[in-house]
Specification:
This protein is mainly β. It has one helix at 11-23; strands spanning 37-44, 47-54, 73-80, 83-89, 95-101, 106-109, 115-118, 125-132, 137-144, 147-155. The structure holds fe (ii) ion.
């Protein structure tokens, strides 16, 4: 089956997969100074899973999952530690919504959502992310008093 025939998995399905993979890790997470550690651990039908290790203070920029080329929906399951998710609420006056994600928390975003994930805690954190159809690239965004504007395209294997 090619990617062309696969639709993006539903939020509920992505959350279930993320929770399942988080409970059945086959790789020990690592932590790297400077930037979060990320490794693609599985490619399944219509989705792929990434394991991430976050030291205190590490996080992403505001981003989507694929830009216009291949937008992906996603789910995040926190394996250990605590993460904070900042999600852009679109509209005439976009705003950032903040959610605290503790161990066992699972959350999903659709293929148009712009968000950031950070370890704002004082301890390392590990999370398992599932993307559908997959994560080839992320478009980063700047968010200020003028609103949300696209910044850079970052590609898997090159930029993280
Ligand atoms: Fe993301």
């Amino acid at each position: 089956m090619s990617d062309q025939t696969l639709s993006v998995l539903t939020a509920g399905r992505l959350e279930s997969l993320a929770a399942f993979y988080a409970e059945h890790l086959v790789l020990r997470p690592r932590f790297t100074k400077g930037s979060r550690w990320a490794r693609r651990v599985l490619s399944g039908p219509g989705h792929e899973a990434w394991l991430l290790g976050w030291l205190p203070g590490q996080g992403t920029e505001l981003h989507d999952h694929g830009g216009l080329e291949r937008p992906a929906a996603a789910a995040v399951a926190v394996v250990s530690g605590r993460l904070t998710e900042y999600t852009v609420r679109p509209g005439a006056f976009p705003a950032l919504a903040r959610a605290e994600l503790g161990p066992g928390a699972v959350t999903a975003v659709d293929d148009r959502t712009v968000h950031a994930v950070r370890n704002d805690s004082r301890a390392p954190a590990v999370s398992l992310h599932v993307y559908s159809p997959g994560l080839d690239a992320m478009r980063t965004y700047l968010f200020d008093e003028t609103g949300l504007s696209p910044s850079k395209i970052k590609r898997a294997g090159e930029d993280w």
